[in-house]
Every structure is written in C-alpha cells, then in structure tokens.
Amino acid sequence: MEAIKKDQAAPGLDQGQLVQAIERFNTDYCRALDDGRLHDWVEFFTEDACYVVSGRENHDAKLPVGLVYCEGKGMLKDRALAILETSMFAPRYLRHFVTNTYAEPQDDGTIVAGANYMLTQVLMDQPTATLHQVGCYLDRFVFENGELKLQERRAIYDNLLLNNDLVYPV
What we know:
With 170 residues, the protein is α+β, with helices and mostly antiparallel strands. The protein is built from 5 helices and 6 strands; from the N terminus they run αααβαβαββββ.
C-alpha cells in the first residue's frame, strides 16, 4: 500500500473529529459483528490487513502468538466463510461495547488508535448473558478513497481464561 503523508492521514479532521470518526467506525464494525454480517466485517480492512486476537500475557511479553491470526483480506474472507457456512457451534447473540477511544496521526500517513472493548454473549439455549471477553483494540488505520480502513487490528484480551468457543471475530 502506498504511504500517504501525515496531513493526508486525517484529511481536514482535527483531533476531536478524528476520534469521533474512529468511534463511528467502531460502532459500524461492532454492529456488523453483532448482526452476524461477517461478509461486511471483512470490508472494514485493507487488502493487506493483519487481524490478531491475543492474550494480554503474550502481548506484554512481545510474543507474536495469537489465538486468531489472519494476514491479508483473503484470510479474513476465509474465516468469515468458514464461520457462516461450515462451522458447527451453538447459536448465540453477541454484543460489543467499545469506549475510551484515542487516535494519533503518524508521520507515515497512518493513524495509530485504540479503544477498550467488552464482549458479551448469550447462548440461545441459556437463560443468562456471560461476559465473554474484556480487552483493548490496538489499531492502525488508513484512509482509502476517503474511508477509514483497518490496516491492523490487535484485539488484546485481559481475561486469563476464555471460554473454549472463540468463534466470531472480536
């Protein structure tokens, strides 16, 4: 991907507007996931995107190991297709909550950003909701044709234990 200049990273946006644009992006991103629209989820990423779900321990130790690791939009599409058409798992409802967004334009034209997230789930055959994950997004955004796109998203979960059913993207 061709680098853009820092003043092009957030064309015409001041710091507050940039944070607001990323909050809107995250709202749309989470809504796609909560609605089960995984084909739409893929479109939030650049062609060369990297998507990783990893534990806080591994992240802090600078270990690249991720519970989920997708490099490139092709792998993201494969993951979405596998979930939608081939995987067998209990039906569920997911709800994402994202807060405390920050954004920092970089000299290479990208935007380093992040936010805290909480993910709840309700299995359709269970009476109560459970807290599935708590963590933070560590992101790198670019503008492509005037739209924010994720070049990298690392979902770093703080839970020491996860349910064994991490199926959907975070």
